[in-house]
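Quick one, probably user error.
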């Protein structure tokens, strides 16, 4: 049976360019890259070029650790013109041995002061000298897990998300050019383990549970995905799960069979630099 991933990327090409079944994974991933380069994220209320004007003229937008995209959660305009600090994470995709599309994930070191022991995507805060979000994401991936930036083909960025501490996180999708050339070398100060998971898992209702929470009078959903590989169990939740749900929806061109967010969650009254989500 042809996988959904293979159907997706081969049908994105005209018949004259579709690879035969015996072709290597590089051609299939090339087709996926061509598809993703056409993706345009929704306009953001925090776009740098007109950020101050947008905040003055209309309501700002914010998301939370549950993984809501920025455009889905309007808030009243911030009197302090709050601008979240910027970060980027790398959604590094490659084709597994069974032909499925997989994403590289990490388990954070238990010694870290925040989010210790949690599953996350490689990435971190923007630093001076980073040319763009792709540069930030690949630089951080090299520092955290030893992934050479030259092995990653950046193809698109998704709409920003906001973390628990109101850090603006830009998901960057990249394709691993040669999975055999990548030898994980986790930085023990930051990363306890490196593993991969099937991307399609995040738009399936298997191994998933949900919790409803409330902040500032607004209810929202947190998704949890339980995953086991090589006799190790991982829980993927919160912001990371939200980003991967959105990425999988875009790659496979279909929504998940579950509600991404609580329909009643639509207004946060105020936010400033001191706001922290529960």
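Nope, works fine. Designed sequence:
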């Amino acid at each position: 049976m042809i996988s959904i991933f293979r159907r997706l990327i081969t049908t994105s090409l005209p018949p004259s360019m579709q690879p035969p079944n015996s072709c290597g994974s590089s051609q299939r991933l090339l087709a996926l890259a061509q598809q993703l380069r056409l993706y345009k994220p929704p306009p953001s209320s925090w776009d740098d070029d007109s950020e101050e004007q947008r905040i003055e003229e209309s309501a700002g937008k914010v998301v939370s650790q549950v993984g809501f995209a920025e455009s889905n959660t309007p808030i009243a305009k911030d009197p302090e013109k709050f601008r979240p600090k910027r970060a980027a994470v790398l959604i590094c995709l490659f084709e597994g041995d069974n032909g499925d599309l997989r994403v590289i994930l990490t388990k954070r070191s238990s010694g870290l002061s925040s989010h210790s022991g949690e599953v996350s995507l490689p990435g971190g805060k923007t630093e001076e000298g980073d040319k763009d979000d792709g540069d930030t994401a690949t630089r951080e991936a090299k520092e955290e897990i030893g992934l050479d930036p030259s092995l990653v083909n950046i193809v698109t960025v998704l709409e920003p998300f906001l973390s628990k501490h109101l850090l603006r996180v830009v998901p960057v999708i990249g394709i691993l050019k040669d999975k055999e050339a990548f030898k994980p070398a986790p930085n023990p100060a930051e990363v306890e383990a490196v593993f991969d998971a099937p991307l399609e898992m995040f738009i399936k209702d298997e191994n998933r549970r949900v919790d409803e929470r409330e902040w500032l009078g607004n209810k929202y959903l947190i998704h949890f995905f339980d995953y086991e590989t090589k006799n190790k169990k991982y829980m993927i939740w919160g912001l990371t799960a939200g980003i991967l749900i959105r990425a999988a929806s875009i790659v496979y061109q279909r929504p998940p069979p579950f509600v991404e967010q609580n329909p009643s969650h639509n207004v946060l009254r105020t936010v400033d630099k001191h706001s922290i989500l529960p």
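DSSP finds five helices and eleven strands in the chain.
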